[in-house]
Design a protein that fits this description.
- There is one protein chain.
- β2 and β3 form a beta hairpin.
- By secondary structure, this protein is α/β, with parallel strands linked by helices.
- The chain contains 13 helices and 13 strands.
- Helices cover 40% and strands 21% of the residues.
- α1 crosses α2 and α9 packs parallel to α10.
- The strands form 2 sheets. Strands 4, 5, 6, 7, 8, 9, 10, 11, 12 and 13 form a 10-stranded mixed β-sheet that branches. It has a 3-stranded antiparallel β-sheet with strand order 1-2-3.
- The chain folds into 2 domains: 120 residues, 2-Layer Sandwich (Enolase-like, domain 1); 237 residues, Alpha-Beta Barrel (TIM Barrel), CATH 3.20.20.120.
- The structure holds calcium ion.
- It comes from Teichococcus coralli.
- Pfam families: MR_MLE_C, MR_MLE_N.
- One of its GO terms (molecular function) is magnesium ion binding.
- Keywords: Magnesium, Metal-binding.
């Protein structure tokens, strides 16, 4: 089988109710670069790149596309190393790796379709056929109702059956953050897991002080307390707090994660399959984490394709540690309104009572609705 073409689709949808996080910019649109790879066998595979879609598209079209055409999709890691080698001299480890991730995911989709198996069967098999999903939400929308809106939204997720929720923090006022987290914990009760995500907005002392103040609120993990470049700082925060510290959605490749994992700078690493190098590279990152006693719980933020790829990857991640009643890695199921996530697959990945079934269909286990693809396509 030979690859005959690589096509990028830049999709964009408007966000009706703009929201923000501690990063400080308002989300008014959701966009994604979708990668379509076709073959001479008539099999098409789909991938997705995290981050600025037009940049991803440009990197693929100008740097990768011609090197991929004519190759056998089953040479997925040969292709990966070749593309990485093509760009490594230029020091761009972020968006170039996200662009490479979209190609890698599409190749896994093709391989699965070629042999009639879901991707998780090709990467070791399913440790579980159902995933526990956690709802990511509780962004900042109405600055006059920050506590009330968080409580309302958290209650909605509990009513929908979610057993775990992740909320945004980082309002420039640790007392307000603490009040808001405490109000959500009070509203959802002790039985629902609650994680907090600061989107790297704190200094080390602020993160430690706020983390200690939140210890009584039974926080599942404290995500991205500080800037991703500051590995020494992560070691300090992680050692200082009893609660787990998580991060890694802004790290890329096995080399980017190596020091973080070997130093146990975080308790949980969160590579994104659409950003950190695709399914091929995230498997290596997960293996390295396992060897160092660090949990791997992937980050996910994208369309139906990125979500499906994350589900396939998660199904094949072992419990760390294995146990009679293990605590398996959970699926990040982001809940802000996004038609690219909800409509792009003919049978979208959905949760019921907080559980997501791992699709058994070939490849990523979803079929793309081309009419929806065209509807949101801007380039
Ligand atoms: Ca995050």
């Amino acid at each position: 089988m030979k690859i005959t073409d690589v096509t990028c689709h830049v999709l964009q949808s408007k966000v009706e109710q703009p929201f923000t996080s501690a990063r400080g910019w308002l989300y008014t649109t959701r966009a994604s670069c979708i990668v379509e790879i076709s073959t001479d066998a008539g099999i098409t595979g789909w991938g997705e790149c995290y981050g600025p879609a037009a940049v991803n598209r440009s990197i693929i079209e100008t740097q990768y596309r011609s090197r991929v055409i004519g190759r056998d999709p089953f040479d997925v890691e040969v292709i990966w190393e070749d593309l990485y080698n093509r760009i490594k001299d230029y020091g761009l480890t972020g968006m170039t790796i996200a662009a490479l991730s979209g190609i890698d995911i599409a190749l896994w989709d093709i391989m699965g379709r070629a042999v009639g198996k879901p991707v998780h069967k090709l990467i070791g098999g399913a440790h579980r056929t159902e995933l526990t999903a956690y709802a990511t939400g509780l962004y900042f929308i109405d600055m006059d109702r920050l506590v009330e809106e968080a409580v309302d939204e958290a209650r909605k997720y509990v009513e929908q059956g979610f057993q775990a929720i992740k909320m945004k923090i980082g309002l420039g006022d640790p007392k307000l953050d603490l009040r808001r987290v405490a109000a959500v914990r009070e509203a959802i009760g002790p039985g629902i897991k609650l994680a907090v995500d600061a989107n790297h907005c704190f200094t080390v002392p602020h993160a430690i002080r706020l983390g200690r103040a939140m210890e009584d609120l039974d926080i599942l993990w404290f995500e991205e307390p500080i800037s991703p470049e500051d590995h020494d700082g992560y070691v300090e925060v992680t050692r200082a707090l009893d609660m787990a510290v998580a991060g890694g959605e802004n790290d890329f490749t096995r080399w980017g994660f190596r020091d973080v994992i070997a130093r146990k700078a975080m308790d949980i690493v969160q590579p994104d399959v659409c950003a950190a190098g695709g399914i091929s590279e995230c498997r290596k990152i997960a293996a390295m984490a396992s060897a160092h006693g660090v949990e791997c719980v992937p980050h996910a933020w994208g369309s139906a394709i990125g979500l499906a790829a994350t589900v396939q990857f998660l199904a094949a991640l072992p419990d760390t540690p294995p146990a009679l009643r293990p605590m398996p890695p959970m699926l990040e199921f982001e809940q802000t309104p996004n038609p690219l996530r909800d409509l792009l697959a003919r049978e979208p990945i959905q949760q019921q009572r907080g559980i997501v079934r791992v699709p058994e269909g070939p490849g990523l286990g979803i079929e793309i609705d081309r009419e929806v693809l065209q509807r949101y396509r801007v380039a």
